[in-house]
Amino acid sequence: MAKLSISDIKKKSVTITEPDFSYIDGKYLRDFRMSLEMSQTLFADYLGVSKKAIEKWEQGKNKVNALAQRMIYIMENDPNVFSLLKEVRIDGKIYRIQKTTI
Fold this sequence. Notes:
Blueprint: H1 6-11, H2 26-35, H3 40-47, H4 51-58, H5 66-77, H6 81-85, E1 87-90, E2 93-96
Antiparallel strand pairs: 1-2
């Protein structure tokens, strides 16, 4: 991905588009979740949805919603996001959970 400076942007006609998330369907979600070795329950917790929603998406009964598609896209492109989504407090001290410890 090319990087532009502010001066480059000022000189150009800029169009900002969002990535195509349409490839993130139930099968893709399941494969991605399995590659992370996460249960449906834990993955649902990270996405902020119910386990039932994950089940229905993976079974093709419901379409993966747009917000979940965006979140999955972020998760697959920046594994550090996992440490931002969960933390553990022990005796008042905060520990971030890394993807490798899930």
